[in-house]
Amino acid sequence: YKSTSSILQPVQLRDSSVEASDHNVLESQASIQNTVHAIKSRLNVISHNEVESYSLQTECQMCGIETIISSEPTNETYLPINKAVLNGTVAIGIGQTQLFELSSALEIPCMSNSTFSRQHEDLSLNIHNLAWEEIRKAGEEERQLAMEAGDIDVDGIPFCSVVADGQWSKRSYKTKYDSLSGVATIIGFKTKKVLFIGIRNRYCVICNRAETKNETPLDHTCFLNWTKSATGMEAD
After folding, report:
1. pTM score, two decimals?
2. Where do the structural domains in the chain lie, given as residue ranges?
3. What is the mean pLDDT of residues 22-36?
């Protein structure tokens, strides 16, 4: 406070350390902007790649050093964002249209339909290969338990107790037996793990559209592998 005509009035004081801090921040921002401008002006973009993640191959115009700048980590344990998003869509049962709407609500770019389809095919192949590898391991485990229990026939081949059942995509008990797809599963009795999965499909949307238009189907991964009745899927 200072005295003016015997009246105390408040005086606004500003800490010198605050002023110095603000000054340093402004200098840092200016330095960063100058550095970014210098980098941009001296880097020449040679090529770019947008297959998995966005990356730029650049060359410094001063020293000639080439560098690849990637939008995501490139180590083997990292799951790329596109694959992670697609894995989530498969887990919750949505498609590219729903993903586009969700991305719009979050105000983030969404992959195109062609990219979504390509990533979906790659993910399906990875899931398929991983599933069969786990099935193989489960079979080895069931076999080992059977041998340890002495469940071996005269030829030295272990026999395993299993539980098998079939399912269809629509209810078929005492009603129409016209399901377009079905699956049969064999589960080990001791390990409770899946030992086999068999899928039968009577319908392929691409083949059906081409047949309706009297056209030849385009090259595609066709899942049509059954032409008989739905009741015969489980026995097969």
Report:
1. 0.62
2. 2-70, 79-150, 161-236
3. 53
